[in-house]
Amino acid sequence: MRMPEPDGAVIARKRAIVETLRTLVPGPGGVIFDEDELRAYETDGLTAYRQIPMIVVLPSSTAEVSAVLRYCHDEGIKIVPRGAGTGLSGGALPLADGITLGLSKLNRILEVDYPNRCVVTQPGVTNLGITRAVEAEGFYYAPDPSSQIACSIGGNIAENSGGVHCLKYGLTTNNVLGVEFVLMDGTVVRFGGKHLDAEGYDLLGVVTGSEGLLGIVTEVTVRILRKPATARALLLGFPSSEQAGDCVAEIIAAGIIPGGMEMMDKPAIHATEAFVHAGYPLDVEALLIVELDGPEAEVEHLIERVDAIARQQGATYHRASAGEAEREAFWSGRKNAFPAVGRISPDYLCMDGTIPRNRLPEVLARMREMSERYGLRVANVFHAGDGNLHPLILYDANKPDELARTEAFGAEILKLCVEVGGVLTGEHGVGVEKRDLMGAMFDETDLKQQQRLKCAFDPDQLLNPGKVFPQLHRCAELGRLHVHHGKLPFPDLPRF
User: What's residue 484's pLDDT?
Assistant: First the structure.
C-alpha cells in the first residue's frame, strides 16, 4: 500500500513541533511522541496496514483543535484525524511525517433537548453513549453499527456509518442535524443546527462521509427518536443463500420496510452461535433476522405476512421472539458476528460493498465461485435489506501469500458490486482499502471534480493525504483552464 513520501524536513523538526504543540495543548497527555506510546495509534480496524505516526495530539476543546490546525496550516504539517480507531478502511492510518489528531478527550454530551428531539454532543462520545443518555425517557439514537459500544459519533460522521436498523431509519447522514467544523486554517464554522433543514448549499451533506479530508468535527447535533411501542424479531432459516436473498427482495417488494433485516450464511451462523449462544439454527445454509416495529397490532400483522413470504421462498425454520430478552439475544448474535468469526480464523478482511437487492442471489453465487478459485473461505454477514454486503475473507497473515490473495479476492468482490449496479462502499468508507479501486466506479473527470471540492476546503492538501483518491492532483493543476486548438471553452462567459 503506497502512501505519500514522508517529508524529511518536517520529520527533522519533530522536537520543535512537539514543543509548540505542548503550548497549544498544555493538558496532561495532550502530546504523545515517545515511540512505544505512539504504537497504540499505528493502525485502525484495518490492521493489515500499520504506520507509527510522527506525533499524536489529543486536544480537549474546539479552541485547541483550532489552534493545532492553524499552526499545522502555517507550517505545512499534515494532519490525520482519528476518532475511536474502529474504522475498517484505513481512514485513520497515520503518516510518518504527520500529526494524528485524536478526538477521544472531547467526550461529553453537552445538551439533551427532548422538546426538539435532539442531542448536542462532542465527537468523542460513543454511538451507544447517546442512546444510553436518553433511553430512560423512552428515546434512542437510530444508527447502530456493530461497533456502537466503542465507535465515536465523530467517526460515524466521517464514514457515514450505518447499522442494522438503518434500512428503516436511515444512515448517519439522515440522523445528523448539525455540526461544528474546524477548517484546516483553524476557522471554526457551523453547518445546520437543531432545525430540520439547513438553508443554502447542503454543506452538512458534504462533510458527512468526507473521511477527514475536509475538516474536523468538534460538535454534533443528532436526531433522537421515540422507541417504538412494540418490536419483535423473526429468525428465518433457508436451505440456500439464494432463497434467503430472494426472500429479502420479496419482503421489500410487498411494501414492508422492517426496522432491520440482516442475513448470515452457514459459516457465520456456526461461528456466532458457538460464541454467543443466541439460539440460531445450525441446520440451515442462510439465516435472516427480520425485525418489525410499531404499534402492537401492526407488528403482529406484519409478522404473519413476512412469515408467509418466507414460507413461499422455501424457509425451513421460523421463530419469532417471545419477549424483549429474546429479541435482544437474536441481535446479540448478529452484533457479535465479527469477533465470533475471529475465533475461527487467525485473520480476516471485512469487505463493504453495496448492491441492488434483486442481484443478491447472483452476487452470492459468484462469491462462492471466487472463494473456491482463490482457495480462501468467506463468511457472509450483511445488511440484507439495503444490499450492504460485509463478506469476511478468512486468511492467515503468517502465510506469505495469503494477504495478497485475500486483497485480490476482496477487490474482485468490490468490482462485482459495481458491475451489477452497486457501489464500492456502503458505510465503511474508502480510506486506503478501496482507494485504488475508485477508478472502477469513477472516471478521471469524476475524480477530478471530487478533488476540486477537497481543494475548496483544503487547498494545500494537508488533511488526511493518501486516502480516498488513487492519484492526487495539485489544486492549481485542477484549476487550470483547458484551451483546445487555441480556443477558450464557452467564450461568451465572463472571465475573472
Answer: 55
Contact partners, residue 177, CB within 8 Å, separation at least 6: 118, 192, 193, 194, 195, 196, 204, 221, 222, 223
C-alpha cell recorded at residue 68: 493545532
Instruction: Spell out where 109-151 has E strands.
Output: 109-113, 118-121, 139-140
DSSP secondary structure code for residue 217 in this structure? E
Q: Which of the 8 DSSP states describes residue 489?
A: S
What's the pLDDT tens digit per position in 125-141? 999 999 999 999 999 99
Bridge partners of residue 222, in order along the sequence: 119, 176
If you search the block for the grid coordinates 410499531, which residue do you land on?
294
| pLDDT tens-digit map of 317-347 | 999 999 999 999 999 999 999 899 988 999 9
- Listing DSSP states for 346-358 in one string gives SEEEE--EE--GG
Q: Kindly report the length of the chain.
A: 496
Can you list the domains of the chain with their CATH numbers?
8-102 (3.30.43.10), 109-226 (3.30.465.10), 230-339 (3.30.70.3450), 345-438 (3.30.70.2740), 447-466+473-479 (no CATH)
User: What is the reported pLDDT for 403?
Assistant: 94
**Residue ranges, the chain, pLDDT below 50:** 481, 490, 493-496
Answer whether 0.85 is exceeded by the pTM.
Answer: yes
Specify whether the backbone of 120 is left (phi greater than 0), alpha (psi in -120 to 50) or beta: beta
Cell numbers of 387, please? 444490499
Residue 263, C-alpha cell as written in the block = 442475513
The pairs formed by 445-448 with CB atoms below 8 angstroms and a separation of 24 or more are 447/471, 448/473, 448/478
- How far from chain centre, in Å, is Cα 11? 31
Instruction: Go through 85-121 and write b for each residue having 16 or more CB atoms within 10 A of its CB, e for each that does not.
Output: bbbbbbbbbbbbbbbbbbbbbbbebeeeeeebebbbb
pLDDT of residue 491: 53
Burial class (CB in 10 A: 0-12, 13-18, 19+), 432: buried
- Say if residues 340 and 276 touch (Cβ distance below 8 Å): yes
Cell of residue 239, nine digits:
436451505
